[in-house]
Amino acid sequence: MKLIRLAVSAALLSLAATAASADSSLNLIKDGELRIMTNPIYPPMEFVNPDTGTIDGFDVDLANAIAKKLNLTTVFVTSAFQELQSGLQTGRADMIISGMSDNVKRQASMDFVDYITSGPILFTVNANAGTYKQATDLCGKTVAGSRSTSFGDNVKAWSAENCEGKGKPAIKFEGTADSNAARLGMKQGRYDAVVQGIETIAYQMRIEPNTYTLVGEPLLSNDTFGIGFKKDHTALRDAVAGALDALIKDGTYDEILKKWGLVHNAVPKAVINGVK
Questions:
Q1: Number of domains in the chain
Q2: 115 vs 139: CA distance, rounded Å
Q3: Whether residue 275 has pLDDT greater than 80
Q4: Which of 16, 17, 34, 167 could form a disulfide with 72 if both were Cys (CB 3.0 to 4.6 A apart)?
Q5: Nearest in space to 46 (alpha carbons), one of 105, 116, 107
């Protein structure tokens, strides 16, 4: 019996040592803990649940599932969107998951594991539905969106090709503090339309029925959200990519997508820095 107890104790010590070694190889801020930066004002990706007062959403559920695959606990660190990258670089968190688009500009200072598709789309209030039926109807008009996202660049690039490039006046982009401020300004008549991720406006239209109308098709067809990492944290990046692939394979990823109404935004596999 004593020998059995010794063998079990040795096995447990071995497992603990292996877990500690794995944590160390991931270069985490704290062993056993995955610290995640997010800006919880972007439902259904991440937001403060009004019923519970806790952070909720697709990104939260996915991050928790990834951490479980890696035998880690999660700690969410909230921040303004424009401070997420600096927070990561200064060691406030191990990674970012916050509806952040993977793009070449951001890849200069971060690596991404792409985990869901997106696409900026224009929308307006129902009262303007008859006036703005296609995106080109907004040439010469004012479109608002969060200034800390890439939406402004998306609108300007689309306008250069489809408005100015065809002899029409440019769309004027007005940056706001966040998407909530953009929608409020549109309701107040200060903006003609708002640009937002297609996955979030679909959610917004469910919780504010008979309020908004989509204008045209998404401005981009290859927009993808990525989980952000410091450039030198390749071990953690690769471990998270592997965990995401495992979640896709075992069906957990699909279950989380269904929960948040995002089944059409699925990716078939984890891709590192997939946007070129």
A1: 2
A2: 33
A3: yes
A4: 34
A5: 116
pLDDT at position 269 over 90: yes
pTM beyond 0.85 = no
Measured between alpha carbons, how far is 127 from 162 in angstroms, rounded to an integer?
25
| pLDDT value of residue 9 | 46
Phi, psi of 134 (to 5 degrees): -125, 160
Q: Are residues 87 and 103 in the same domain?
A: yes
CA–CA distance, 206 with 48 (Å, rounded to integer): 17
Count, in order, helices (H) and strands (E) of the chain. Answer: 9, 14
Q: Concatenated DSSP letters for 99-117?
A: SPBP-HHHHTTEEEEEEEE
Parent domain of 59:
27-117+223-272
- CA 24 – CA 3 distance, rounded (Å): 31
DSSP, collapsed to helix, strand or coil, labels residue 208 as coil
